[in-house]
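Bumping my old thread because nobody answered last time. Still need a sequence for this structure:
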């Protein structure tokens, strides 16, 4: 039976998306954090990602000036800080200090810090800025990835899917949970 649908004006309904904290710094090394949900994979070789920001955001000019940023994945224990860093401006408050987060040294970047409490830090260098309208997309090459050894299992595998990663969907945060299948499960032969 055909389901009845409504036609809405064009808009972004591509949900859920990752909710990440992007760390950056000014030319003097003063750090800041911005929460970003418009983030994605662009290419695997070379490893490239993108983030989309409004030009009026405080972090926009910092990233444009320095050409670097870190995508810090968030887990359940960082959910409150993730939301807070998305509604407060670095122009007015030190987000690291207020949220009790620790800026750490990136391995391959000069100014942008990692967030030590994040289980995964993706260090990025801007390659291109696409001015698309309300948001500008920073396309960046991944220079290094730091992962927390605390989340390695006894065989040395990083247990990314056990972290309770945070997703954002239509104004709400969710923790990723139940596994539905593994890549290729739909075509795997059953015994």
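Sorry it took so long. Here it is:
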């Amino acid at each position: 039976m055909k389901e009845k649908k409504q036609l809405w004006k064009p808009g972004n309904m591509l949900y859920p998306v990752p909710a990440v904290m992007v760390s950056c710094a000014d030319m003097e090394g003063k750090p800041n954090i911005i929460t970003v949900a418009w983030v994605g994979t662009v290419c695997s070789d070379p490893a490239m990602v993108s983030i989309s920001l409004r030009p009026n955001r405080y972090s926009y000019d910092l990233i444009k000036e320095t050409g670097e940023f870190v995508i810090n994945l968030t887990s359940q224990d960082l959910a409150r800080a993730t939301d807070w860093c998305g509604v407060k401006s670095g122009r007015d408050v030190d987000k690291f200090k207020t949220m009790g987060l620790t800026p750490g040294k990136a391995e391959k970047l000069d100014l942008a810090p990692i967030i030590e409490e994040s289980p995964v830090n993706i260090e990025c260098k801007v390659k291109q800025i696409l001015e698309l309208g309300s948001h500008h997309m920073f396309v960046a090459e991944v220079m290094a990835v730091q992962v927390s050894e605390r989340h390695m299992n006894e065989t040395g595998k990083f247990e990314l899917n056990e972290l309770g990663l945070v997703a954002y969907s239509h104004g709400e945060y969710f923790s990723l949970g139940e596994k539905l299948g593994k890549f290729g499960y739909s075509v795997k032969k059953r015994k």
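The mean pLDDT is 94. Let me know if any region looks off to you.
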